[in-house]
Write a structure and sequence with these properties.
It contains six helices and no strands. The protein is mostly helical and about 100 residues long.
Length: about 100
């Protein structure tokens, strides 16, 4: 708890202990620690899109930026970047 509250990321702590980031977040929340929510900066969205367009999954792109796949998805939706259908290489219809 102390390390996270001092500014260390949940990803860093998880990597050290060989657990998933969500495990660390859940333990912190169980102990009443306010969890920081990470976002992808506007500058990084273009790089994230490039990686995604090269075939990377949302999860892999998220790992690259230290965020969850849904955070990448939210960033893409915020700026209108289309995404593939889950589990396929087909692009989802925009609408």
């Amino acid at each position: 708890m102390e390390r996270y509250e001092a500014g260390e990321s949940a990803n860093s702590i998880a990597a050290e202990f060989g657990v998933h980031r969500t495990t660390v977040v859940r333990l912190l929340q169980d102990r009443g620690v306010a969890v920081r929510h990470r976002i992808i900066s506007e500058e990084d969205v273009a790089l994230a899109q490039t990686l995604y367009d090269q075939g990377w999954s949302l999860a892999r792109v998220g790992d690259e930026f230290g965020v969850a796949a849904w955070t990448v998805l939210a960033a893409f939706r915020r700026v209108g970047i289309p995404t593939r259908r889950r589990g396929t290489n087909q692009w989802a219809a925009r609408g």
